[in-house]
Amino acid sequence: MEEPVVIGKDKFKISDDETARRELRIVKVSDNVIQVQEEVHGIIALVGASSSVNIKKEELKNLIKVAREEFGWTDICE
């Protein structure tokens, strides 16, 4: 796998004395597969059998741009 490309970063307050950091990255797994990774620090969470990624509109635009320009996926819409 290639090195991840960061397409979004932010911080959000989860209590009066704790702030969480979030980073959204994408990695090219193969010619036809990319992986979206969301890493959150500062939250104690229970891990279940499924997961989800929250993506902002600007991050989606960045994801499409990286997929086209860095991963060569020129046949996807913008």
Descriptors:
three-stranded antiparallel beta sheet, alpha+beta, 78 residues
Structure description:
Strands 1-2-3 form a 3-stranded antiparallel sheet, covered by helices on one side. A hairpin with a 2-residue loop joins strand 1 (5-15) and strand 2 (18-30). It contains 1 helix and 3 strands. It has one helix at residues 57-69, and strands at residues 5-15, 18-30, 33-41. The longest helix is centred in the C-terminal third of the chain and has 13 residues, at 57-69. 17% of the residues lie in helices and 42% in strands. It is of the alpha+beta class and 78 residues long. The protein has one domain (5-69).
Number of strands: 3
Shape: elongated
Q: What portion of residues belong to β-strands?
A: 35-45%
Q: What class would the helix/strand composition place it in? A: alpha+beta
Uncertain spans, ≥5 residues at pLDDT below 50? 46-50
Main β-sheet, spatial strand arrangement? 1-2-3
Largest sheet: 3 strands, antiparallel
What is the count of structural domains?
1
Terminal CA distance reads 25 Å
- Kindly report the average pLDDT value: 80
Count, helices? 1
The radius of gyration computed from the alpha-carbon positions, rounded to a whole number of angstroms, is 14 Å
User: Helix proportion of residues, in percent?
Assistant: 10-25%
At a glance:
With about 80 residues, the chain is of the alpha+beta class. The protein is built from one helix and three strands. Strands 1-2-3 form a three-stranded antiparallel sheet, with helices on one face.
